[in-house]
Amino acid sequence: MRISVKAPAKINLTLDVLAKRPDGYHEVEMVMTTVDLADRVDMALREDGEITLDCSASFVPDDIRNHAYKAATLMKEKFQVRQGVHLYIDKQIPVAAGLAGGSSDAAATLRGLNQLWNLGLTRDELAKIGAEIGSDVPFCVYGGTALATGRGEQIAHLGAPAPCWVILAKPPIGVSTPDVYGNLRVAQIDNHPDTKQMLQAIATQDFSLMCQSLGNVLENVTLSLHPQVRQIKDLMVASGADGVLMSGSGPTVFALVQKEAKVHRIYNALRGFVKDVFVVRMLGAKEGEILA
User: Fold this and answer.
1) Which of 136, 170, 233, 242 is flagged as catalytic?
2) Phi-psi bin for 156: left (phi > 0), alpha (psi -120 to 50), beta?
3) Would you write out the chain's pLDDT as a tens digit for each of its 292 residues?
4) pTM of whole model > 0.85?
5) Which of 11, 95, 177, 216 would you call most buried, defined as having the most Cβ atoms within 10 angstroms of its Cβ?
6) Distance separating the N- and C-terminal Cα atoms of the chain
7) 10 is catalytic
């Protein structure tokens, strides 16, 4: 038996850090939404009980360092599954980009194995398991748009934001999320995102208010470490983007645009500067299940 599951990228419309927690994580408040740039995770049942993984990107690890592999191992051990699985990841989301590609692959693996191994788990139960793998995995299990709190694992579902184009640009660098958080001084944050205003913008599908409410407290840390990120952001603003923000810990920056004519102008400006540029739409609602 074989199944295939879509693993969409996410962007942060807001990312606020409220405090350092006793467990070493940070207390966060984030509004996230999925976009239609996606990996695909193909799964084939193995009767020998082994878990194996291949990826279209040769530099992606194929062992327990891979979130999808970790998800399969956790499910197999937790539910004492005798069968195994071969995972193949068709990688379209850039790696170490602030787009939760690895977390989304893990979430897709959880959803797919729930069907492949006939486990009968609810989406909420899968999200709880996902929290053991990474802070973004629970959100990726659900997809759509949500407010994430705690260390990111507490999910409150939201309606779809105002429809728009999203232009993603990633410089040719990877960013370590632990490094970015390690350089963040929570007490020195003087400009927190207005999360309540963003929630209002989403509830009313107010595009202008959504653009005004964009904010990410990790942005200044990453900009100071990687000047290329600031250059991309400045170029997007100069090219007429309605709203611009770095996603997650970076280095990917996204522009929100309503008019298609602006999309081409911004895309062409960025293509002369960086290789990885994507024009996508917000998915808005919760992501569907199995592809094929």
Assistant:
1) 136
2) beta
3) 899 999 999 999 999 999 988 887 889 999 999 999 999 999 999 999 999 999 999 889 999 999 999 999 999 999 999 999 999 999 999 998 999 999 999 999 999 999 999 999 999 999 999 999 999 999 999 999 999 999 999 999 999 999 999 999 999 998 888 889 889 998 889 899 999 999 999 999 999 999 999 999 999 999 999 999 999 999 999 999 999 999 999 999 999 999 999 999 999 999 989 999 999 999 876 554 455 4
4) yes
5) 11
6) 11
7) yes
Catalytic residue among 10, 76, 170, 233: 10
> Which amino acid does the sequence have at 110?
L
DSSP state at residue 128: H
Are 17 and 184 in contact by the 8 Å Cβ rule? The answer is yes
Asked whether 145 and 281 are in contact (CB, 8 A), the reply is: no
Residues 161, 205: contact at Cβ < 8 Å?
A: yes
| Joined tokens for residue 253 | 């920056």
Does a cis peptide bond (omega within 30 degrees of 0) precede residue 8?
no
Sequence-ordered strand ranges (E) for the chain: 2-20, 26-46, 51-55, 84-90, 145-149, 154-158, 165-170, 215-216, 243-246, 253-257, 276-281
